[in-house]
Design a protein that fits this description.
Its EC number is 1.14.13.149. The protein contains 13 helices and two strands, in the order H-H-H-H-H-H-H-H-H-H-E-E-H-H-H. With 318 residues, the protein is mostly helical. Strand 1 and strand 2 form a beta hairpin. Bound molecules: fe (ii) ion (2 copies). One fe (ii) ion binds next to helix 4 and helix 7.
Length: 318
């Protein structure tokens, strides 16, 4: 294809996105669009399945049958989100094996929030309320993103995320209204998860390298700092409602802006965790790689079974 032809295709492509048309797997797309989507969507898929680990940690120790059922359902939802997203990413021409390989060798990232430990039951509340809460803020705009398979997957994912957020908030509410020890557990979990949740919305706009192009492709509708502000403004009144204190002495309502001012985020900590030096990075990767290796026999058995069935079918057809 000549350069001119490519430029003309690119122009048509940009016009389609501007008209809010969806781009489908067999449509022509610029190589950069395909690569950026593979990176973002696979990173999202990896985050869903690595995100199962800190909460899976508490399934056997949930304090009641009701809590256990809800947590189990939530963790199962995350597995489902991972599966939709891996499938959607495969439509861009990368195999699932390649994506796992990238995760296991550290070439692909997952959300750094999942490298923090879940040390008490209250962490199940804080994670659902804050981590899933921040995820919703990030993901709702993606329901309108330009790549069809991603946008459609996100509609269902977001509906399930709002259940996750509510089950987390309900755990926090119950603990905050319980005995002094229970309230302390809730406050302690909020203290530990608040700042990492703010970091989850990504580096400040000045340091975010992909923002401009992603905005053009509607892969991003608001900047990281705007999303963070939205998260803070929505979460502070929820903490007040249940009598918990946000661990930020600089947090203050700004009448003029109609938003909360907040203290400095420790970006050194964020980059340390992203680079693999968070409290649980090694543990998470060990669990993922272990699951992949120990699951080899079942993948092999499933393939052998499928081949046998296929052979039988062919014999019958003869
Ligand atoms: Fe999810
Ligand atoms: Fe979730």
């Amino acid at each position: 294809m000549s350069e001119e032809q490519i430029r003309s295709l690119e122009r048509q492509f940009d016009e389609r996105i501007a008209r809010d048309e969806k781009i489908e797997p067999k449509d022509w797309m610029p190589e950069k669009y395909r690569k950026t989507h593979i990176r973002q969507m696979s990173q999202h898929a990896h985050s869903e399945i690595v995100g199962m680990l800190p909460e899976g940690n508490w399934i056997t120790r949930a304090p009641s049958l009701r809590r256990k059922v809800a947590l189990l359902a939530k963790v199962q939802d995350e597995a489902g989100h991972g599966l939709y997203l891996y499938s959607a990413t495969e439509t861009l021409g990368i195999s699932r094996d390649e994506m796992y390989e990238q995760l296991h060798t550290g070439k692909a990232k997952y959300s750094s929030i999942f490298n923090y430990p879940t040390v008490t039951w209250a962490d199940m509340g804080a994670v659902g309320w804050l981590v899933d809460g921040a995820a919703i803020i990030n993901q709702v705009p993606l329901c309108n993103t330009s790549y069809g398979p991603y946008a459609r997957a996100m509609i269902r994912v977001c509906k399930e995320e709002s259940f996750h957020q509510r089950q987390g908030f309900e755990i926090m509410m119950k603990l905050a209204n319980g005995s002094p020890e229970q309230k302390e557990l809730a406050q302690d979990a909020l203290n530990r998860w608040w700042w990492p949740s703010l970091m989850m919305l990504g580096p400040t706009d000045a340091e975010s390298v992909h923002t401009e192009q992603s905005m053009k492709w509607k892969l991003k509708r608001k900047s990281n700092d705007d999303l963070r502000q939205q998260f803070i403004d929505q979460t502070v009144p929820q903490a007040e409602l249940i009598g918990l204190t946000i661990p930020d002495p600089d947090l203050k309502w700004n009448e003029e802006r109609g938003s909360y001012d907040f203290g400095d985020i420790n970006w050194d900590e964020f980059w340390q965790v992203v680079k693999g030096h968070g409290p649980c990075n090694k543990e998470r990767m060990k669990a993922r790689i272990g699951a992949w290796e120990e699951g080899e026999w079942i993948r092999d058995a499933a393939m052998a079974h499928a081949e046998k069935k296929q052979e039988r079918k062919q014999k019958q057809a003869v």
